[in-house]
Amino acid sequence: MAEDPKAKEQELSRRKFLTLVGQCAGWGGIVASLGGVGVGTLKYLIPNVLYEPSSIFKIGLPSDYGVGVDTRFMKERQVWVVRNERGMYVLVGICRHLGCTPNWFPDQQRFRCPCHGSIYDTDGNVRGGPAPRTLWRSGVSLDAVDGQIIVNFNQRQDPDPKGTDEGLMVETSLREVSPFFLKV
Amino acid sequence: MEISALIKNEAEKTRSPEDTVLVWPNLVYIELISILVATASLLFLSIISPAPLEELASADTTPNPTKAPWYFLGLQELLVYFDPWLAGVVLPTMIIIGLIIIPYVDPNPNGKGYYTFSERKFSVAGFSFGLGLWYILIVIGVWTRGLDWSWYWPWSDWHVHMSVTAVKLVDLELIFENMFGLPKEPLVTLGRYGITVANLITWVFFLGYYAVGFTVPFLLFRNFYNKLGLIRYNLVMFFFLSMSGVMLKMLLRLTFNIKYLVVTPWFKI
Amino acid sequence: MKEMIAKIVSLITDNQVYRSIFRHGYPTTDANRALIMFSSVILHLHPVRVRRGALKIRFTWCLGGLTFFFFVMLAITGVFLMFYYVPDTRRAYNDIKDLGTVVYFGSLFRNMHRWSAHAMVLSVWLHMTRVFMTGSYKPPREFNWVVGVILLVLTLVLSWTGYLLPWDQLALWAVTVGSKMAEAAPLLGNAGPFGPEIGMTPENDIRFVLLGGTVVGQSALLRFYVLHCLALPLVSAVLMAVHFWRIRKDGFSGPL
Amino acid sequence: MDEIWGYPHRLGITLFLIFGTALLTVGFIGFTAWLEQSFKKEKIKK
């Protein structure tokens, strides 16, 4: 009995198709499970609970601070509290270059970083060195009950600075806005 | 690699007994002696120069200066001239990728298995330049950087802060603006990015460096291009120009006080 | 006298136990010198014969072998150090101090570990330079060069992770600076180009994954400890096996 | 920038960088060339 060549061809193409489907399913399964393992590993490496000091903390009453840079919370919380004629703000003591801790030089009225020599003024503007952006300012608010200043360390103001002849600057009016500035 | 090549290689390796010697004792003894010398040197160094241990770690004071281990000081020195995303991430990645692709972009069949400069001048010179730059940056980082990461000569007093003369670092954009009196108002604004005329000119300069760098060897050294082919040529030129660009940017900073060549709100080069 | 020595030797060698360990005589004849290469797992990294040129010290400077030797040295001294070291921010610093003051030979092992690490970094670089200058990466050895570059990077990372463990000022700030670079990675870091635009913050970016927190603290110390003592050496060892196996298959690229 | 991120020895740094790099580069090339020659001589001697 002679086979119908057309049927044979159909049979062949069906087999080809099924093989293809099988291969796609197989390889797809392998890729999908590898992807799943990858995502799972990444998720595993990101901790859900941090055993670190709280990033929201109180630093006392506004009346505790006079005009100028106050370093009393530097050791414990890595922040400088600054008061000018208009109000108060909190500078984060982390150099924007590579995260070293700058030192405050009251005689020069400058923060200077020991790692690569970045220099900041009391507004946080970059007056020299390789720092690419201005110092962060933390979010601040007043506690409704006891009137203390609450600092939110990880809420950070980071405006785009402009290169000028003086250094990398941000207009003061742009920085002195809520919630990064207290008019007290 | 194909099997035939493997076999050919195997045959080549055991070509004739006269050219070869037994590994035991010839090679094994060389290895033994070099291991003994290395162990002795390590012991000697360990005794005369113990590992340092500074004060307990504390986040509120940064030692001045803070130095990475010596083999990273080249990168740390680059951080003076480039932003962290470039010096700390992009440039190291490019160095690694550049090293990895070397065997694939070097079609020169000469100089396999013997020292030669005369038969592969460009590759040896290019590699030497990269190494030279890498090592000189390490030398600078280890021996000339002191307090505040300032430059100290061996004969300077390393205990006093450098009194530093006033130097202004400016962006290339500003230099153009002031030199030609270009308008400070942006032509076009893309989100946070206000593109001024001066800004456009800096882009032309930056991209022009690569454009000229790619074109000139193509026009003048066609033979070089033909040997490499389109893809290899572009890869080689890209990495070579970037390597030279690092040097150039450092020199521009030193001679003209240029802080950034190109400025955008998201990244600066 | 001579007879007595021969008798003692045969007493040691002519038994089932000795022959089960060493399957051939002492390598004083060519046949035994070949056999020792086949039957020893360490020696069989080598072929039985090499070309004369491969022995020239001026050609290889023994650098690849020395790098491997330093790695072995680091593994041995590292294991010794681990007996006394606890990766806890409250203990680590004192443990290192103890190693230097109250443990017999503690400071020697620590110093050896440190110098071997420096030596390994240096010899890896020089080995790479040598391989480039002799063109030994050319076909068919291209991929082995790639493996070598990865091993070079692993060596540097191993060294960097080890830097944190003493938990002194040097350690903390070298790693703070290093991890800030991770933060500046384009797209993946919260301070890098386009990082904030796609939602990177200090609490979900690549630095956070690396350190297991927002600051270099306890979880970072533990992570670096595990990477330094376990994960990275394992990966390196596997890649070294590939590296050596390939050299063995492709042969030395030596002259002559 | 009234102060200080300056380069008190700017010319010195620039020259150090240029000549240091050049010296090392020439050194690496020279060493390779020297090794090339020394191996060539050996071949002839044999």
Q: What's this model, at a glance?
A:
The complex is a heterotetramer of chains A (184), B (269), C (256) and D (46). Chain A has 184 residues and is of the alpha+beta class.
Please describe what this structure looks like.
- Chain A is an alpha+beta fold and 184 residues long.
- Helix content of chain A is 27%, strand content 25%.
- Chain B is mainly alpha-helical and 269 residues long.
- Helix content of chain B is 59%, strand content 3%.
- Chain B contains 9 helices and 3 strands.
- In chain B, helix 4 packs antiparallel against helix 9 and helix 7 crosses helix 9.
- The longest helix of chain B has 27 residues.
- The radius of gyration of chain B is 25 Å and the shape is flat.
- Chain D is mainly α.
- The chains are: A alpha+beta (184), B mainly alpha (269), C mainly alpha (256), D mainly alpha (46).
- Chains in contact: A-B, A-C, A-D, B-C, B-D, C-D.
- At the A-C interface, loops of A face helix 9 of C.
- Strand 1 of chain B pairs antiparallel with strand 1 of chain C, so a sheet runs across the interface.
Give the overall pLDDT of chain B as a whole number: 87
- Lateral strand order in the biggest sheet of chain A: 5-6-7-8
Supply the number of helical segments of chain B.
9
* N-to-C SSE string of chain B, H for helix and E for strand: HEHHHHHEEHHH
The low-confidence parts of chain B are none
Shape of chain A: elongated
Number of helices of chain A: 3
Output the keywords:
heterotetramer; B: about 270 residues; mainly alpha; 9 helices; flat; D: about 45 residues; about 80% helix; disordered N terminus
SSE layout and pairings?
The complex is a heterotetramer of chains A (184), B (269), C (256) and D (46).
Chain B: H1 3-13, E1 20-22, H2 23-48, H3 73-81, H4 84-105, H5 121-143, H6 172-180, E2 188-190, E3 193-195, H7 197-220, H8 222-228, H9 230-256
Antiparallel strand pairs in B: 2-3
Chain C: H1 2-13, H2 16-21, H3 30-39, E1 49-51, H4 57-60, H5 63-82, H6 92-101, H7 106-133, H8 142-164, H9 169-183, H10 206-211, H11 218-250
Helix pairs in contact in C: 5-7, 6-7, 7-8, 8-9, 8-11
Chain D: H1 10-45
